Automatic annotation (TrEMBL):
It comes from the Bacteria. Keywords: Acyltransferase, Transferase. This is Acetyltransferase, GNAT. Residues 8-142, 154-296 form the N-acetyltransferase domain. InterPro entries: Acyl_CoA_acyltransferase (IPR016181), Bact_Acetyltransf (IPR050832), GNAT_dom (IPR000182). It comes from Actinorhabdospora filicis. GO terms for molecular function: acyltransferase activity, transferring groups other than amino-acyl groups. SUPFAM superfamilies: Acyl-CoA N-acyltransferases (Nat). The lineage of its organism: Bacteria, Bacillati, Actinomycetota, Actinomycetes, Micromonosporales.
Amino acid sequence: MIKLPPRYTHRPATTDDIPAVTALADARERHFHGLPHADPGDVAATFARPALDPATRTLLVHGPDGDLAAWAWAERRGEIHVHPAHTGHGLGTALLDWAEGLTAPGRFVQSVTDADTAAVEILTARGYTRLATAWLLEIGLDGGVDVPEVPGGVTVRPFADGDGPGAHTLMEDAFAAFQPRRKDYAEWAEGTVARETFAPWASPIAFENGEPVGAVVSLDVPGSGEGYIERVAVREDRRGRGIARLLLRHAFAAFAARGLSACTLWTHSETGALALYERVGMRVRRSATVHARDLA
């Protein structure tokens, strides 16, 4: 049972709510960071999580005027987002109570932007610990992009029809040590190549002996004026040869050719990739922290 302020109501979310949830996320991005950075594909990917039953593990909260005031989902990890116009009413605390009740016993993990100091204070008071730091990195593209030479034996081309399964295997292998489970192709595609914002022309793949050894998945989010790199991966036995740097520069060049002013991507401290991105000219725009608590 969730306790809300008077005249606030709640119900589970459905995929029909994706536009409204995206608008809430966009309002938060503008409030905390001054720029829109919300994509309906991010919300759709949440609904595609195989362990997430929307009827029992999602929640929408509507305000007295019927507008969407907050949204949350919870399984082993989760997210809680309150619209800036509805902060200060205890919605975040109420939704955290709800999420923890669903998760206990077990560990509940969530990522919170460091700019949301009120949310960070709530988690700290509850005994959450910091697991990792995530950074949104950026690079300006107005000055043009130099693309390095291709290593011997390697060819690079943009993503084409039929590349999905190979890119899926490559990326899930590369991220196996950093995620709790392996995604099947359908779930992976929902968050990458099946998104409406997927940009195959800015998603280069490196091949050696006819096999994919590195790949980038990029998105072109309308209205942002920026390109976004969703995933970067290089096969473990081909690392250290400059393939990641090469693919990133190809993606940057593709976005620059379309007139986009910048390119961004997220990484986190557990991957150890921050130095790589800084070497190709990217800089930290903002950060978030992954918080966790073991619930009895």
